[in-house]
Amino acid sequence: MQDGFGRKIDYLRISVTDRCNFRCQYCMSEKMTFMPKTELLTLEEITLIAERFIGHGIRKIRLTGGEPLVRRDMKDVIQRLGRKVQSGELEELTLTTNGSLLTEYADHLATHGMRRINVSMDTLDPVRFGEITRGADVKVVLEGIKAAKAAGIQIKINMVALRDFNEDDLLPMAEYCATNGHDLTIIETMPLGDVGADRKIAHIPVAEFVAPLHDLYTLSPVAHRSAGPARYVSVEPLGLRLGMITPLSNNFCDDCNRLRLTTDGKIFMCLGHNAHVDLRAAVRKDGIASVDQLLQQALKLKPLRHDFNAQLEGSAEILERHMNVTGG
Ligand code: SAM
Ligand code: SF4
User: Fold this and answer.
1) Which atom number of ligand 1 is nearest to the Cα of residue 195?
2) pTM across the whole model
């Protein structure tokens, strides 16, 4: 598949639920309203749509949310899509998770073809972790990560850079990741949905956030690329691969290969735009074959780039969707 700007599209992110057992301050407001369950795609619809997309050239799928592992029928979704990895139709099936349920899921993920996952953890400090997630326990996440590693899954830690909150946590996090053989990726906050706070205050460019590493280590660009937007450096002699996701400070849309399927069955071609097509209504009315034509329509909707800087400044179309609906 190609979009209107000639970019190859082969990576699908599916938000399998908008619900979550955390309430991270940059992702959600304290009192979130979630979609009624009848609006969510069923397990059957998710897998049928994903399989149809694979037929059109999707090679990598990331399951995300909300917290994907809180969905009751997740084991079935993973098992069914995992078969596509085992048959070679899909290169990769991955997951972004807050890690809280990994102890229960690790073996299931590994058995069904999941070789690497992203786990979000913004600090190792239990008090700060409780604060940013509004009540979660970092010990549970660390145990989950251990279980996933023991099951043979490679881990990348996602850490959102938050000014005046977790700058001091970078060095301990880098050391923890290096010691345990995990990659680490730093992410700039994006203005998605109202979280009841001024996003400008928390925003910090990744280059500024990682600056303290330069005092202790040598950072050199490396050729490694994952399917997503991170750019990587090696941090030596620590022995850490560090990714940086810089939607605001260094736009990476030129080689964007992604499309997103939301919890309620909409295709969004860009996290930062409201344009979408509604698959759920069409699939429920006309059957799964209607995906083919709507996918072609969606490809034409993919914008050249997002507008997060203008949105952060309040001078562009506001994005009311929170990150948990479109999926990270
Ligand atoms: N619940 C899972 C988790 O936290 O990993 C998956 C969904 S979460 C929305 C996916 C990723 O998006 C996480 O790494 C999270 O830190 C990040 N995220 C959430 N809201 C964000 C925002 N406004 N800006 C940047 N990253 C955000
Ligand atoms: Fe939940 Fe992930 Fe959002 Fe945190 S970032 S509230 S864990 S969906």
Assistant:
1) 23
2) 0.94
